[in-house]
Design brief:
Structural class: alpha/beta
CATH architecture: 3-Layer(aba) Sandwich
Mean pLDDT: 96
InterPro entries: HDAC_classIV (IPR044150), HDACs (IPR000286), His_deacetylse_dom (IPR023801), His_deacetylse_dom_sf (IPR037138), Ureohydrolase_dom_sf (IPR023696)
Organism: Algoriphagus aquatilis
Family: Belongs to the histone deacetylase family.
Pfam families: Hist_deacetyl
Protein name: Histone deacetylase
Number of helices: 10
Low-confidence stretches: none
Amino acid sequence: MLKIAWSPTYSHPLPVGHRFPMEKYLLLPDQLRYEGTVVDSNFFEPKPIDTKWILNTHDTFYVEKLQSLQLSKSEIRATGFPLSQELVEREIQIAGGSVQAALFALEFGIGMNIAGGTHHAFSNRGEGFCLLNDIAITTNYLIQNQLVKKVLVVDLDVHQGNGTAELFQDSVDVFTFSMHGEKNYPHRKETSHLDIGLPDGTEDNAYLKVLEKELNNILNRFSPDFIIYQCGVDVLDSDQLGRLSMTIDGVYKRDKMVLTLAREIKAPVMCCMGGGYSKHIKDIIDAHAQVYRLAQDLYF
């Protein structure tokens, strides 16, 4: 059975006019139920991740400042969110959701988190709407509990996964792959194991051709037994922050390529949603919903 992490706290309210579309975390589950892709039993409310697993990924001093709400004004500004206890608890629960979705993936082949993909969180700071790196926390949890040996992170958000790259820069058991807009945020890129920067305006055919080539190249260098897929939809032409020119159909083909590859190499996959900032919320929901439909079609 497809299991999806979701909690009402994912929709933590932000000030009016904030550009991060928190409402998608409420609307996406409703859309998936409405169209019959899932039923209530597909969802589970995740438990907050134990602090020891956060400290296994992030610096102690940073975690203590975050939990005591002692970040400086500049540190808070870098995250893009007004800091609050509710926001910190949300991030901790999101990380728990990704870990638990990964455990379901080990059982069923795939597991999903309606939120997550917080790839801009570094070992010692947050950035870009990310406070804790759920991708890294999940990866470390799986490896250190000896549930898997090698993890491939496929990050296809339009923004480079700079925090994830920093956290695993010296790892031989984790391969970080980020394909993103070259001229987009973050302006100072970190070094992933493989970075592919795309020019502004990249369309479906060019994007998919590069992705297929690079995924094949990765498998010639690295043999994962687990995949974490950050499937942000800010690659859409309609995205206000993305600067690429993909269509909804192109995003569908992208997601199908990644999930099909995971099945072919028999590597369980955990999908986390990442970004999406189109002007019309319908575009965001439609693009996100496709990966859940694919999961049902390909795995169940």
